[in-house]
Design a protein that fits this description.
Elements: H1 2-27, E1 38-44, H2 52-64, H3 67-73, E2 74-78, E3 84-89, H4 91-98, E4 103-108, E5 120-124, E6 127-130
Antiparallel strand pairs: 1-3, 1-4, 2-3, 5-6
Helix pairs in contact: 2-3
Length: about 130
């Protein structure tokens, strides 16, 4: 049960962040050093004595070198269903942040496409029912 809940939380996190990621990639900031950076989702332990976003920014700043750089790189801070954040990072930064205390996993963000239209339930091949 707990394993399936964690899987569901991961999937929901990716789906929620995909729209935020798409907007961030479209807007771009024209910075050539950021062009090699890609959006990643960084799963963290839930901070105990600190607000989640402050912890996420502090973790990012430890790799990026400043609070300002961390604020620019942070795309979204997950606080409810999961603890973590999404940020634009280079391969070297991904390697560094993976070593930070409290970081559980770093995964590249990806766009997923559903195989059915919204509101459709496929109960068996060839049979579509509206839910």
């Amino acid at each position: 049960m707990q394993r399936s809940l964690l899987s569901l939380i991961s999937i929901v996190s990716v789906l929620i962040s995909s729209s935020v990621v798409a907007m961030a990639e479209v807007s771009g900031d024209g910075d050539s050093s950021a062009s090699s950076a890609a959006v990643h989702i960084i799963y963290t332990e839930k901070p105990v004595d600190e607000e989640p976003e402050a912890f996420h920014l502090r973790t990012l700043a430890s790799v990026l070198g400043s609070d300002d750089a961390a604020k620019k790189a942070l795309i979204y801070s997950y606080k409810t269903a999961a603890s973590g954040f999404s940020a634009k990072l280079t391969a070297e930064q991904v390697s560094q942040i993976s070593q930070q205390p409290g970081v559980l996993q770093v995964v590249p963000s990806q766009m997923l496409q559903l195989h059915s239209e919204p509101g459709m339930l496929h109960s068996r091949p060839g049979l579509n029912r509206r839910i």
